Amino acid sequence: MGMTIPMIMTLVINLIYTVLAIGLAVFAVRLIDEKVFTKIDFQEEIKKGNLAAAVLIAALLIFIAIVVSAGLKG
């Protein structure tokens, strides 16, 4: 019992949506970083070992991923 054509098409479509959602999430985090947190350089703070900055960026990514995935589900 192999995969049928509709199953493969569904898999490909889900993969495309996933890649688009990841790209949108990264774009949204960069936009928030540039527009909201103008005085904080998160990349530099993370390089210094600031765990709070890393947790904030991770939380933003998770939040945006949840919102995007809910939007993709309809």
Structure description:
The chain has 74 residues and is mainly alpha-helical. The chain has one domain. Helices cover 81% and strands 0% of the residues. It has three helices and no strands. The protein is elongated. The two termini are 31 Å apart. The model has no long low-confidence stretch (mean pLDDT 83).
What attributes characterize this protein structure?
mainly alpha; elongated; 74 residues
Question: Secondary-structure map with pairings?
Answer:
Blueprint: H1 5-35, H2 42-47, H3 51-73
Helix pairs in contact: 1-3
User: Biggest β-sheet: count, sense, barrel?
Assistant: none
Number of strands: 0
Extract low-pLDDT stretches.
none
Q: Would you tell me the overall average pLDDT? A: 83
Helix content: over 70%
Count of DSSP H/I helices: 3
Please state roughly what percent of the residues sit in beta strands, choosing from under 5%, 5-15%, 15-25%, 25-35%, 35-45% or over 45%: under 5%
Number of domains in the coordinates?
1
**Rg computed from alpha carbons, rounded to a whole number of angstroms:** 17 Å
**Terminal residue distance:** 31 Å
Class derived from helix and strand content: mainly alpha
* Helix-strand pattern: HHH
